[in-house]
């Protein structure tokens, strides 16, 4: 998950609030009261065409890491390092064994009543060398079988082309820091559209670009574990956005008329709440929103990075002695080419952080935090999950959607992830409560703020390999017995609750239409 990773890691240098102000205490008393604490849930039924689904990602569930001709990717390499960077030396070598258990996956999707299943394609399973010299028939067949099984059960596939498992061959050339990634990604996307596009209506190019670039190339806490804040991470962002746009345009030119699908990308971060109502804090919040969401959504909507991002990075780069900004520029042709390269925008929603301007700090510091000149944190008192970065803040979901709706007018959104981590217990009341309170705020954003949200995806279908946290943090609606050869899946209480929601499209006993 996410800056969950950043789904799962926090971005900035965080500091812990030592003393909570009276204002904060008030806020907390008010906001931390979820439904189980007396807050009313939205009682309006979701629209009839609203879609409910669940998500996984290839490396987190498939296993079969070296079977049937699959090539090596950066997560195979990261998890096999000695010493291992992963909790308990865990790997995704077998994970949930979905490569062999996919029929069981579809069976539990059916039990949940999912309208759609969001999963990702393993690039190195399809193109073992990373390049398109040889298409691995067994890899293609696996995904064709999965899609066929989904179709037979009336479940719509929503396919992410890239959820972090880059072929190692491309990483050896610099990964997203090298612009050869652009055409290589387009080559991979073309194979996928050609092989699967007749049966896939919803495509996502990249999952959580900021996790890929910021966490992978600056914080170094996701593969490829590169530590290049403010330099490598911006090169990554620049190449990733151009790869997205080129794949989108290629779909337009080569596939859209025949396949008539939709292509999007998903963005994430926390909701960055101003820590007070001072104009400085409000501005700090806006700046961080632009450096995180804006960095990836602004180019596809408006063709370029947000002004505040260009301005801040250029100013600090000059002060540091660089003769050009560390943030690469799009050419006028690229701006035109990039504008409008989305049919919808996915958003992964997990948590909230408070934001204030950064005080002090050396001019030599680089990276999103120093360039944005902000600092963010979460108060200790906020409701916890099993993940240090994931505090339960339902109201942040509505504010995030309001912000996206007003910044990207006319865009259609789908929540591509939302979820909660615990120890894997079957009686997972805290997860159930998280889901109902977040969904209620999402319903509010649709009803009262007019944000065009057409679907919701729970992360995750089942407990799985949670990146550097291994199997120590569990996000599943289904429990997976990682000691059983078949990786037995068992529904948790939240799965039964979610099955009610997918059936009734309603969060309470009786809904208003
Ligand atoms: C992880 O691997 C190291 C060797 O790199 C070993 O010393 C350690 O005991 C292992 N830890 C676990 C939990 O298996
Ligand atoms: C900030 O202003 C809003 C709207 O006026 C108000 O509802 C909220 O309580 C204020 N928050 C703080 C922390 O003062
Ligand atoms: C594992 O699955 C296979 C095939 O579905 C089944 O025959 C076998 O009994 C299962 N084994 C266990 C231990 O559940
Ligand atoms: C699901 O709905 C049924 C029928 O309304 C109800 O009896 C049951 O308690 C619900 N289950 C959960 C986990 O909410």
From TrEMBL:
Pfam families: Glyco_hydro_1 (PF00232). PANTHER family: GLYCOSYL HYDROLASE, LP05116P. The keyword Hydrolase applies. Keywords: Glycoprotein, Glycosidase, Hydrolase. Homodimer. GO terms for molecular function: beta-glucosidase activity. One of its GO terms (biological process) is carbohydrate metabolic process. This is Putative glycosyl hydrolase. The lineage of its organism: Eukaryota, Metazoa, Ecdysozoa, Arthropoda, Hexapoda. InterPro entries: GH, GH_1_N_CS, Glyco_hydro_1. It comes from the Eukaryota. Belongs to the glycosyl hydrolase 1 family.
């Amino acid at each position: 998950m996410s800056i969950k990773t950043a789904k799962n890691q926090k971005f900035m240098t965080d500091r812990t609030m030592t003393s909570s102000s009276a204002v904060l205490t008030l806020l907390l008393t008010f906001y931390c009261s979820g439904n189980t604490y007396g807050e009313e849930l939205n009682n309006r039924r979701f629209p009839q065409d609203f879609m409910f689904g669940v998500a996984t990602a290839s490396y987190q569930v498939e296993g079969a890491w070296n079977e049937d001709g699959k090539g090596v990717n950066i997560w195979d390499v990261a998890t096999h390092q000695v010493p291992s960077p992963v909790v308990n030396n865990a790997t995704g070598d077998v994970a949930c064994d979905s490569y062999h258990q996919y029929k069981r996956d579809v069976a539990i999707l059916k039990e949940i009543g999912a309208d759609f299943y969001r999963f990702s394609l393993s690039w190195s399973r399809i193109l073992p060398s990373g390049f398109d010299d040889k298409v691995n028939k067994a890899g293609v067949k696996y995904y064709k079988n999965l899609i066929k099984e989904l179709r037979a059960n009336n479940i719509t596939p929503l396919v992410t082309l890239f959820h972090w498992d880059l072929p190692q061959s491309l990483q050896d050339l610099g990964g997203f820091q090298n612009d050869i990634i652009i055409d290589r990604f387009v080559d991979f996307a073309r194979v996928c559209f050609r092989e699967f596009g007749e049966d896939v209506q919803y495509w996502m190019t990249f999952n959580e670009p900021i996790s890929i670039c910021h966490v992978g190339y600056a914080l170094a806490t996701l593969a490829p574990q590169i530590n290049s804040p403010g330099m490598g991470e911006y090169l990554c962002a620049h190449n990733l956005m151009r790869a997205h746009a080129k794949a989108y345009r290629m779909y337009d030119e080569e596939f859209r008329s025949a396949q008539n699908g939709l292509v999007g990308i998903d963005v994430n971060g926390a909701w960055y709440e101003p820590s007070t109502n001072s104009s400085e804090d409000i501005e700090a919040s806006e700046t961080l929103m632009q450096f995180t969401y804006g960095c990836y959504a602004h180019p596809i909507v408006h063709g370029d990075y947000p002004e505040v991002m260009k301005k801040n990075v250029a100013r600090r780069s000059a002060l540091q002695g660089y003769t050009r900004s560390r943030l690469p520029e799009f050419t006028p042709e690229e701006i035109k080419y990039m504008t409008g390269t989305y049919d919808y925008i996915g958003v992964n929603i997990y948590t909230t952080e408070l934001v204030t301007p950064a005080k002090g700090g050396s001019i030599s510091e680089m990276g999103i935090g120093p360039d944005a000149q902000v600092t963010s944190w979460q108060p200790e008192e906020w409701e916890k999950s099993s993940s240090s970065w994931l505090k339960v803040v339902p109201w942040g979901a509505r504010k995030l959607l309001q912000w996206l709706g007003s910044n990207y007018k006319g865009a259609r959104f789908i929540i591509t992830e939302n979820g909660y981590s615990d120890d894997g217990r079957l009686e997972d009341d805290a997860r159930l409560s998280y889901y109902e309170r977040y969904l209620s705020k999402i319903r509010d954003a649709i009803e009262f703020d007019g944000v065009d949200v057409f679907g919701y995806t729970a992360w995750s279908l089942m407990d799985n390999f949670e990146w550097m946290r291994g199997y120590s943090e569990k996000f599943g609606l289904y429990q997976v017995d990682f000691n059983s050869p078949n990786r037995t899946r068992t529904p948790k209480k939240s799965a039964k609750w979610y099955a009610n929601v997918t059936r009734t499209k309603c969060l309470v006993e009786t809904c208003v239409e």
